[in-house]
Amino acid sequence: MKSEKEILLLNSDMNFKSLLEIIDSVPTRKRGTSIETQERDKNFRDVLMHLYEWHAMLERWYREGMDGDIPFMPAAGYKWNTINLLNKQIWEKYQDVTLNQAIKKLKLSHDRVMELIKLHTDEELITKKYYKWTKTSNLYTYFAANTSHHYIWAIKKCEVIAKIIKETENDKVVK
After folding, report:
1. Average pLDDT over residues 117-144
2. What is the C-alpha end-to-end distance of the chain, expressed in Å?
3. Which of 2, 124, 128, 160 could crosslink 6 through cysteines, CB 3.0-4.6 Å?
4. What is the pLDDT of residues 48-106, one digit of tens each?
């Protein structure tokens, strides 16, 4: 039987690979296309940089927490109930990044977070209040929320983007 840690690592890597496969399924010249939507994320880059920034926040929380501090979560100037404003600010911050840069940055941050998970035992990951900085929660919750679970959200977003790009491409071929 696999441990909680093994399952988290496996699901995170599997979902991460699935996410990249969706992007790879779109012709290279079309991968930077933005779709018409009322939603915040209009292209693959937007989704990937969102994940990247949340990895960066997780890494900061982890570093500060393990140093004995209580990290400001989710980010300085924001509370959990203002997360939409934070996510909009993240979106604005990365509008000049290319998709290739986004993919490289996200692959590196994914690898760093996977290495942090590997540093811990199952007990350290799943025991609530094991680390003071996780408050009433456990480390597993933080890692899962910013990896495997967040990747599922990203997969759904990217599937919609890919579908619309492919349909638009097919419409042009038919006309």
Report:
1. 97
2. 54
3. 2
4. 999 999 999 999 999 999 999 999 999 999 999 999 999 999 999 999 999 999 999 99
Q: In whole angstroms, how large is the CA radius of gyration of the chain? A: 18
Exposure string over 5-28, b if 16+ CB within 10 A, otherwise e: beebbebbbebbeebbebbeebee
Q: Which of 34, 46, 57 is nearest to 96 (CA)?
A: 46
Domains in the chain: boundaries: 4-18+44-174
pLDDT band at 171 (very low <50, low <70, confident <90, very high): low
Query: Dihedral of the CA atoms 11, 12, 14, 17 (nearest 10)?
Result: 170
CATH number of this structure's domain 4-18+44-174, picked from the four choices 1.10.1840.10, 1.20.120.450, 1.10.540.10, 3.20.20.70: 1.20.120.450
Q: What is the pTM of this model?
A: 0.95
Give the number of residues written for the chain.
Answer: 175
